[in-house]
Give the backbone structure.
Amino acid sequence: MSTTTNRSFWQDKTGVPGTIREAPIPSTLVEDEIFVKVRAWGLNPVDAFIQDHPLPFFKYPLIPGQDIAGTVERVGPGPHSQRFKVGDRVLGYAMGASAMGKPGNGAFQDYVVLDHALAVKIPDSLSFAEAAVFPLCLATAGHALFGSKYLALPPPKAASGSAPRTGKSVLIWGGASAVGSNAIQLARAAGFEVLATCSPRNFDYVLGLGADKVFDYNSATVVDDLVTELDNKGVCAGIFQAAGMTGDAVAPCCQVSHRLRQKPFVACANVVPEGAVPEGVEAKFVFGGEDGRGIYYDTTSQLFGGFLEEALRLGTYKAAPRPEVVRTRGLEGIQEGLDVVKKGVSAKKIVVLAE
C-alpha cells in the first residue's frame, strides 16, 4: 500500500467544529484485525451530540464516529480475520473513541482498523452509502433486544426471513428512527410480533420493515391504545424506547409497562430521567457491554457473524433507514453532515461519501 498517512476528524473539545489532522498509518495489525479504506461514513445523533455536550464516558480530544463502509486493504494475523481478503467490500462498527479507551479508534478517518467480529462482508447489490446506515443502530437495537441485562430475547437463529412466531409481542417506540428501523427487523427475524410508534407520515415505511401494527406517538390516547392492544395480544416480551436524544419518550414507555399485566422490562436508548419510572417497572439505559471488550461487542459480534452477513446476501434484511448523502465528499463533509443531524432527521440517515 503506497499511502503512508491517514487523515482523521478530531473533536478536540465540546462547542467547536471538528478538525482534520494527519497521522501515520499503523504498520502492523494485531491478531484478528482488518484494515479498511473507508468509502462511506454513517452519522449518528450521538456523533453530533458530543460536539456540543460533554458526556462522562468520553474523553477529549477524540475521533468520533462508529459507522463505516469500505474495502479491505490489509488482513491481520490470526485465524478469524482470514475470512476476509484484500478487496472485500465490508461494513464495520468502529465502536467509537470511548469503547476501549483509545481516542484514535473512531470511524471518522480515511482508514480504519476494525475487529474482525465487527465487520461484515456486503453483497455487490448493496451500495457503500446503504451499508453505512447499519453499524451503530443495529448494534444498539441488538443489545437492547438480546442483551442479557435488557430484554434478553432469544436472537434470530436463521437469516431466511421465515422464523417461527413465538406468540409474544414487542413494542418498539420510535420505529422510524435509525435504531428503531433495525429493532423492528431484528425482532421480526427473532419471531416476535412487533408493535411500533412513529408519526403518521412514516406509517407505510414502518409497516414495510415488518411492524405488524403502528401507532401515532403524538396521539393523546397512544398509551391507552398500546395498553389495550398489547394486553389483548397476550404476552408482551418487552418494550424498547428506540428514538431520540432527549429522553422524552421514556416516560410514556414506562407508563405502558406499568399498566400492562406483565410489567415488561423497558430498555431505553436514552438515559432514564429521574421520576420517569413508576413503582413496579424496571427501565434501564442501553449502554456498555457484558464482556469488557467494548460497547455492545458481545451481542454485535454474534449478530454480525451469525446473522447479518447472510441476511444481507439473501436480501431478507433491508438497508434502513435510507441514506441521505451530503453534498461535500471526504472528511471535509463530516462537519456538514453533523450540522444536518443537529437539525433533526426522520426515517433517514445522513451519510458522507469518501470520494
In short: The chain has two domains: 5-134+320-353, 139-285. The chain has nine helices and 15 strands. The two ends are 18 Å apart (CA to CA). The chain has a mean pLDDT of 93.
